[in-house]
Amino acid sequence: MTKTVFKPLREFNPQLLRELKGRLKSRNIILTVALSLLAQIGAVHALKYEWFDIFLVLSLGAMTAVLAIGTFMLVSDLDEEEQRGTLDFIRLTPQSATHIFIGKLLGVPCLLYLAIALALPLQFWSGLLGDFSFIDILGFDVILIFRCVFVLSLALFFGLIKGSIVGLKPWLASAFVLFCLFVFLIIFPTEPTLNNGWDAIKLFSPSPLLPYFLSESPQQHIFDKTVLYYITELHRLRWFYLPIGANALNLSLFYLANYIVWTRLTFQGIQRLFHNPISTPMSKRQSYVITACFTILCLGFSIQNFGFINYQLLLAQNLLFFFGLIAVLSPHRLTLKDWIQDSVKLTQKTDLISDLVWGEKSPAIIAIAINLLIVSVPIALITLLTVDSFAEKNILLFGLFLNASFILLCASLAQLMLLMKSRRRTLWTTGILSTIVILPPIVFNVLQIYPREQPLLFLFSALFFAGFERIDLASLLLAFVSQSLILAVLNLQFVRQVKTIGKSSSKLLVS
Q: Which of 67, 77, 72 is nearest to 101 (CA)?
């Protein structure tokens, strides 16, 4: 009977068949069914038949279980495959990378999916008794599924990244997912609409959709405020002036489009890492596309209320985004040594420039600069079109130069440190960059130095944008020139290191 059930999967997805056969044992299935039923009984008993609460706990609890436990299972599975060497064997099979990882996505957490599937009847029933319509419940579940697919795709991507923290990777990934869930489900729901770029981040949380499905009576509460409060705020949600918060359908479609785009981009990264595991996690070409998508998404929520505050929040988002970009784009010493040997063959200057812009092994500094250009040009255009004050406009535009110089400084420092011979160069790079970002704000806080009182000091930290409202153009220019000088020194040192490695490689080849 088992062979009859699994036979169609052999043609559809052999990897899925392999995962299911290893996990769908009688003992595992019985244990999963028992745990699922016990969890449902416990939820109903603890919440004393408040149907809306039961629906909420089952929906968000199931999502949390899939994301946290599913992430752990997928990353752990890839770690085991890598250690056993079976991942290299899978690479030799004729299956496409997409088919292989869809098989893993569906197969590795299959028992978890079974437990949640058993809870679906109670979830639907409690939702119907809690004033949800069948279509609302179905739509909400579809969005939860898309969200889970996106996050689990990220887990696969993270699991494929080579590193020295093999045993810790599943725990780190799960801890990060739980932290994000805490932020999305506990912190963000209290402010349904921020009218700035951080609204884009909330698109990865399903909680803003819930108020649309409930009665707007003053007695009906969700999280810590009335449904009417949330609905009133959500109706103000705009993206490039499009009323995506006007109703549940608009927001749901926007959610789905957002998840589809980012899941597709994640799978491109998975395909790249699967076929070339020693490469950087992201190619330069992919980084340009991702930066453009990120910029469009965040700017769409900021443009309706653009000013100092939204500008500062955009720069804060960009800072976090670019630190991630530096991590996934910067090649390490061995890759750079290969590039140095190959670059000797590039006789034309245009070939070298093209290699720095598109090359797989070349340093990431030029690519980071291009990504900064992709981000900065739209912000500059919006500043020119929406800000009336000439003095304010100049400060905001100069702030973009300061933003670019600070990020390029960090990228250059990271690339220089990754040329170190030390095996712990990644740890050293992470530690020093983290210190540059975290230490100054801590010192300012301890010494009770605030941006409104001493804005000039903040210009030389990661929070350079905090004091823009009280800064003058001369101070901005001073900070920009200082950072540019440090940037020039770092890049000169990097060029010297590259030339030294190139000479050493040439001597070895000659000998």
A: 77
User: Are 100 and 12 within 8 A, CB to CB?
Assistant: no
pTM of the model: 0.89
Structural domain including 46 reads: 2-192
For the chain (511 residues), the mean pLDDT of every run of 10, in chain order, is 58 81 87 88 69 81 90 92 84 84 91 92 87 85 91 92 76 89 68 73 75 59 58 79 86 91 93 86 92 93 84 88 92 83 65 84 91 94 85 85 91 90 83 89 86 81 79 84 91 87 63 52
- Buried/exposed code over 124-152 (b: 16+ C-beta within 10 A; e: otherwise): bebbeebebeeebbebbbebbebbbbbbb
Task: Look at residue 29 and tell me if it is in a domain.
Answer: yes
491's tokens? 């890049």
Name the residue with tokens 């290299």.
88
What is the token pair recorded at 335? 């890759």
Rounded to 5°, the CA angle 142-147-148 comes to: 95
How far apart CA 119 and CA 122 sit, in angstroms, is 6
Given 174, 192, 210, which residue is the final one in a domain? 192
Residue 458 lies in a domain: yes
